[in-house]
Amino acid sequence: MNLKNYIGGRFVDGEELQKEGVYNPANGEELAKVPLSTKEEVNQAVEFAKKAQKEWAKVPAVKRAEFLYEIGFRLKEKKEHLAQILTKEMGKVIEEASGEVQEGIDMAFYMAGEGRRLFGETTPSELSNKFAMSVRSPVGVVGIITPWNFPIAIATWKSFPAIVAGNTVVWKPSTETPLMAHELGKIFDEVGLPEGVVNIVYGTGPQVGTALIEHPDVKVISFTGSNATGSRVAELGGRHLKKISLEMGGKNAVIVMDDADLDLAVEGILWSAFGTTGQRCTACSRVIVHKDVKQELEEKLVSAIKELTIGNGLDPSVKVGPVINQQALEKIHQYVKIGLKEGAKLLTGGNTITTPPYDKGFYFEPTLFTNVQPDMIIAQEEIFGPVLGVIEVNSLEEAIEVNNSVKYGLSSSIFTQDVNKVFEAQRDLDTGIVYVNAGTTGAEIHLPFGGTKGTGNGHRDSGQAALDVFTEWKSVYVDYSGKLQRAQIDTEN
Ligand code: UN1
């Protein structure tokens, strides 16, 4: 199948464009060809989006939201079908793929509800016979740039709040996962979303991403991806005075205290370290454990890891799927070698799996290191694969200090039975998300999603916070006194 851009409400051929293959990471099968668009296609899409936005902004938010309800129903109907495509395209196991589609459904209904809220403030005025309020106005045309690890959920986190608030969208999905974008595009089309409200342009960052960021009519860029790319987005966007919302890496830790329920901790760690084969920005890649329970926790972890079935995620018994591509496989392997050189000790895993039937896909063994020091490269850099390191500490204070010693601040977790430790930890852990007695993954769509320090630049996806990215505040004062009343001066009358 040759995928087509979706511009101005039409799937357009782009015959002349260069094409790239899209492959199933589980077995190397070619699934589709994706066009590598140029500045020309971006310009066309922005033109349609700009034209559409004037009308779209005038459609009552409640009516705009009706499209989102309809999109939510379609996603629900197609949930199983979409999950299958997601697993084939990206590799995560079918149960997780289905959960990801659910995240999109949840976002559709949540943001559809915003059609009847989009709350601003009404306030008293300091003057009599004067009315004061703030309203959210759309920003205009917004550009969204989404990654391959959550190809549908993250697209919905960004596009749904944008459109309910009256913006129009030009979306650049990852070239690794254009099939999910195509499926979402078909749904936009089926529900009759007016032409130009959402446009999809496939292509690379340097071509499509850059053209989008530099385009004078694109007012906001919302990006999720690596820190290296995010910094370039911010730099380029800054030069053009764009509002840039960045969601980037993580080096998330689970803290296990000496009073923790260790079996529960093992389950939480396994789920958040090896779910999506460790390719979540919220994935746990460090376990910070109290010295008194370190050995027992490690033994339990090793035997649980050895039980994990690795393979094609379409098989429901498989717990760990492939990683996205050959490059990722090599990068992960490289980090394991670095870890060994740094003096960390492998407890299990550490290799690519190349024996049949794994030889056609990109598989890496779920890996556990011990004797990891907080400042080692494998404890500081985001590996984005199934690699976990255990760091020993003596106290909660030390655990928190180790947790906070990385440049990222997305998610953290603590396992303990002590309510005092829980509250101390949630106060002092320097991350945008904190879990208690659960792993580091599993954010729900109605709370802000994002992190401190190198994880982002102060914005959030999801929840009400997402609306802040895609709206401008407008403060409206209505003076119905029939005379000039000067703020700050005529306040005695
Ligand atoms: C991501 O890894 O980029 O909380 C998103 C979670 C998921 C979303 C992850 N709901 O792990």
Helix content: 25-40%
Tell me the span between the first and last alpha carbons: 73 Å
Strand content: 15-25%
| Number of helical stretches of at least 4 residues | 15
Which molecules other than protein and nucleic acid are bound? Answer: 2-aminohexanedioic acid
Largest sheet: 7 strands, mixed
**Largest sheet: spatial strand order:** 14-17-18-13-12-20-21
Indicate the mean pLDDT: 98
Q: Which structural class is indicated by helix and strand composition?
A: alpha/beta
Rg (CA only): 24 Å
Global morphology: globular
Question: What characteristics describe this protein?
Answer:
single chain; 493 residues; alpha/beta; 7-stranded mixed β-sheet; globular; binds 2-aminohexanedioic acid
What do you see in this structure?
The chain is α/β, with parallel strands linked by helices and 493 residues long. Helices cover 39% and strands 22% of the residues. It has a 7-stranded mixed sheet, with helices on both faces. A 5-stranded parallel sheet has the order 9-8-7-10-11, sandwiched between helices. Strands 5-6-23 form a 3-stranded antiparallel sheet. Helix 2 (61-77) packs antiparallel against helix 4 (94-114) and helix 7 runs parallel beside helix 8 (227-239). The chain starts with a strand and ends in a 14-residue tail after the last strand. The model has no long low-confidence stretch (mean pLDDT 98). Bound molecules: 2-aminohexanedioic acid.
